[in-house]
Design a protein that fits this description.
By secondary structure, the protein is of the alpha+beta class. The protein has four helices and 22 strands. The protein has helices at 29-36, 90-97, 151-157, 210-217; strands at residues 19-22, 25-28, 53-56, 59-62, 80-83, 86-89, 114-117, 120-123, 141-144, 147-150, 160-161, 168-169, 174-176, 179-181, 200-203, 206-209, 219-220, 227-228, 236-239, 242-245, 264-266, 269-271. The strands form eleven sheets. The protein has a two-stranded antiparallel sheet. Strands 3-4 form a two-stranded antiparallel ribbon. Strands 5-6 form a two-stranded antiparallel sheet. It is elongated.
Length: 279
């Protein structure tokens, strides 16, 4: 007697019929498709044993249903993209969703290199210097008036030249006597300390920090011998070619302030009228 060979599920004989093995168990085509076939995302029908099952991220399609949502062209063996779970050919996706080049206004195809700056995008070959027309690529550039310039071209066309070193000023800078300076070049004539961001003064058109100016040119107080800058509205007393800080203009004997009061002199000393009455 011949051994039976039946469908594992419905137990009908498989002799002379097509069947499918799953985990070493035979199934008739009808039972296999009912139990295990995937459902097509497009037509919602089962994907039978005799047709190709195309899958993407746990979703399945008949070969003839695997097409672009927009233009309905087949995507079998072709590159594609997805948007909101819809399949799109590269061309339809690009036309609908890809960035447009700020220069040539054409679509920047997915996968191609693009340059981005302040919300705008360019093809790599369209992102060029306005002056020399050479691609900027990953090099430094400077935007001006809705155009982009490589650094050498920007310096040649727009940058002011430092009056000290004669080189272009590309960032920052200081204006002194209507002339441009690099911050690093604008230094105290005496001590060479950078003057940008701090108070300074000048003599004979040369700039000095306050310390150097006071040490070199300011008059000295007749009492404490330190410089009297006279800068920033600070007050001082002058008498017979001698000067005093306001706080130093005091009676030699009793130290009372003589600012705004009468006083007497005895050699190099100043005295209040009370202390000087015996002179």
């Amino acid at each position: 007697m011949t051994e039976r060979y039946d469908c594992h599920y419905c137990k009908e004989s498989l002799f002379g019929k097509k069947y499918v093995l799953r985990e070493e168990n035979p199934y008739c085509v009808k039972c296999y498709e009912s139990l295990y076939s995937n459902t097509c995302e497009e037509c919602k029908k089962p994907i039978g044993c005799n047709t190709r099952d195309l899958s993407y991220k746990d979703r399945h399609w008949h070969e003839e249903c695997f097409m672009c949502f927009q233009c309905k062209r087949s995507l079998v063996d072709k590159p594609f993209s997805t948007k909101d779970e819809k399949l799109l050919c590269t061309e339809c996706y690009s036309n609908e969703y890809s960035s447009k080049c700020h220069e040539c206004k054409k679509t920047i195809m997915p996968g191609s290199r693009k340059m981005e700056h302040k919300g705008n995008s360019w093809h790599e070959t369209c992102f060029t210097c306005k002056r020399c027309q050479q691609p900027i690529g990953t090099k430094s550039f400077i935007p001006k008036d809705n155009s982009n310039f490589c650094v050498p071209c920007y310096e040649k066309q727009f940058a002011m030249q430092c009056v000290h070193c004669k080189k272009p000023i590309t960032t920052g800078g200081v204006t002194y006597h209507d002339q441009p300076w690099h911050k690093d070049c604008f230094l105290c004539t005496s001590c060479k300390q950078q003057l940008s961001g701090q108070r300074f003064t000048s003599r004979d058109d040369f700039a000095y920090c306050l310390n150097c100016f006071c040490n070199l040119y300011a008059k000295k107080c007749a009492s404490c011998t330190t410089p009297i800058s006279g800068l920033g509205g600070s007050k001082y007393i002058s008498f017979e070619e001698r000067q005093w800080h306001n706080d130093c203009f005091n009676c030699k004997k009793c130290s009372v302030s003589l600012v705004g009061r009468g006083f007497l002199t005895e050699r190099d000393d100043i005295l209040c009228p009370e202390c000087g009455k015996d002179i």
